Amino acid sequence: MKPAQVRMARAALNWSLADLSKAAGVHRNTISNFETGKYGGSEDALAAIERALESAGIEFIAENGGGAGVRLQKP
Whole-model pTM? Predict the structure, then answer.
């Protein structure tokens, strides 16, 4: 999971930093610092963020030559 993917996922869900923070149980500053590249994030924090976004319906798309991305899962 890359910082840009977290930003794209939040945008797709229309979530604020506070929304993701609450869903993941991770401080909003940690998420903000990860998204802006100021902090690489701990394995535990990144796993919690990824789980929260996936639980909300986000599917992470791996780097495939066109860049990593996200999409909403089919209902």
Answer: 0.89
